[in-house]
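Action item from last week, closing it out:
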Amino acid sequence: MRVASSRRLRLPRGEGPGAWLAAGSVALSLVALLALLGLLAVRGLGHFWPSPVQLVVLEDGRQLAGERVREVPLARGEGVERLYRTGNRDLDGARWAWVRVSAIEAVSHPRDLVVLERRHWGEAVGHLAAVEVEPGRRVEGEAAWVALEARLAELAALRRARDALREEVILPLAGGRKAEGWAGPGLAAANARLRELQAAMEGGRLLLDAAGGQTLEVPLEQVLSARRPNAMSPLDKLAAWGEGVWRFLSEGPRAANTAGGVWPAIFGTVLMVMLMSVLVTPFGVLAAIYLNEVAHQGRLTRLVRIAVRNLAGVPSIVYGVFGLGVFVYGIGGRLDEWFFEATLPSPTFGTGGLLWASLTLALLTLPVVIVATEEGLARIPDQQREGALALGATRLEMLSRVVLPMAAPAMLTGVILAVARAAGEVAPLMLVGVAKLAPQVPVDAEFPFLHLERKFMHLGYHIFDAAFHGGDVQAAMPLVYATALLLVLVILVLNLTAIFLRHHLSTRHGALMRR
């Protein structure tokens, strides 16, 4: 009995409340992260799904047609208001309508309601009355919808040919370079071909009967797409959703960033992060090597470490002001005086651009890389260094062939943290190079191919501008959610790339460190 009792007393004890608290914190963090991603995905990606269009008849006889957005209860229990996206902003100056639910007499979903996406004035909603593909030739009824679809397909092909001609021929010839098949007087011939394509796109119109009784005349060249959501099958809606997502990823913004895509912002964000990583990694690694391997470990070195850690907590806007004063006005202004005097007072490097933004963010993330790399160097056993030196290696060979390969995972950890912080920064970029709309991306086929002086677009600034500076915040909110989700995914892809590389290096050198 005593033996059994003693055995019961020696049973392993539980982990205690600390382990449960840690596990609960991890679970709560994961739930919060998944909830955030779910909100961004539902609000952002759901914007591209063709929602049904309602025809609403009010008690006073008025009618409106639009997409139901949300309902809001009124104060003091006075009922509920419903928000509809009605479009047709060029008719009454508004594209949204608030309606009291109690004032709605009837709601229907006519299959012939058409939603047009236009280059200007936003969406248009109504019944398709007629289509004039050519002057004097009007098509009505169901044949009008068939003629509209055929003409929009032709216009899409003409737009692609026009854009390809501008990008592949006209821009190279205007820059003094050769374009295949356009030698000699090629620029004039290319411009003539461009005018032909533009003339082929012009002409034709459609008549749209709005729910309020007005008739809207829309030039066909201004129509980007047309759909009848109430007549679409689930497969048709899925295809339209995929097309909308692709256009969001591959096109540029329009309508003051409340419509269109974010491709220039994606390109600018990734390019800036990559350039920043190239700039910050060697300086951060060399500084960490000096502090841990070369410098005398005395009071001065400890003060330098404290200063580096304090720099990691400085607000980012302070780095933006520093970059504006030192990089843009200081170094950039001197470069303009020395090499670009002919273009003054128009600045070349004396204004915000990709180079100064990357340098500013490299300075911002430099303490992170230094701290992470130095901690990795400190974890390497001294026996590895001593063994290399005992075998006849010089101090430089010991550092380059033994210490640095074993510290590579820690270096990549610093780069991962730097990328995660730099990709989401907005405040310093507003001072040193980001733009609301950049007509050209910083990379093209013109020498020197990477134009460091150009301004660029950034996903974080695009979110800020669309949410707070747009003329129609309600219309911009779905795109804000979609852009925020895209920014998270871009950061995730960049981080996963570095994580996989770090795992490869850890696996390669882990066995050596365990010996």
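Closing note: The longest helix spans residues 473-514.
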